[in-house]
Amino acid sequence: MRIRIGSRLFQPGALMTLMTIVAIAGLVSLGRWQLRRADEKRSLYEAFAAGTDSVRRVDAATPPLPRYQHIRAMGSYDPAHQVLIDNMSNAEDQAGYYVITPFELTDGGGWLLVNRGWVPLGRSRADKPDVAVPSSVRVLRGRTDHLPRAGIQLGAPVALAPPYPVVANFPTRAQIAALLHETRWSRAADVVLLDAAEPDGYLREWRPPGFPPMRHIAYAVQWFAMAAALAVIYVVTHLRPAERA
Description:
Layout: E1 3-5, E2 8-10, H1 14-50, E3 55-57, E4 70-77, E5 83-89, E6 95-105, E7 111-120, E8 138-145, E9 166-168, H2 173-180, E10 191-194, H3 213-237, E11 239-241
Parallel strand pairs: 3-4, 5-9, 7-10
Antiparallel strand pairs: 1-2, 2-11, 4-6, 4-8, 5-6, 6-7, 8-10
């Protein structure tokens, strides 16, 4: 291909053209993926903000609720059968656990899982934190959510087993249900994030997971800028002075 542009000749090779097109297409695709992620995160943040618009009372008959819906429920904790979700970190990236405590509903029976917050790792994982909690009847307030999920699941799930509190890496509610030998679970949510103002909790800095929407948009701009820069480099490096007649 030869194109005359003023006093210069644009004459790229076929292989270099193909490689450049593939690279630019890949960079643009990555930028568009980041924009889609930004839209997804924007929806999550909007759902989180809207969660406190109303408070739903939860009992055994409550259907599945939207993520981050604010709820209240009456019941009592089961302090003898708690789960510590490993590899959780706070805002300063300090290692620790989420404390997951079963909560028995008094309204019609059934159970919820409650995330009572984050506790730091001890001197070793053999040194489990003291997460005792009274089993008295109380009104619980929190937000519906999913249990933490691994970005990549390696290997087959490992069955959970005592002693309590059981330390687990990204357990599912089905695994916890099997551990507790309990089937009467509320359908309202996988887990309830205990409100920061509620007693008997730990560090609770609840927010949607991952990067905020603007971070994904910034990454998208970077990918698009790299695609544009590559296109400019491709054109400039294949411009040659045209031969005079």
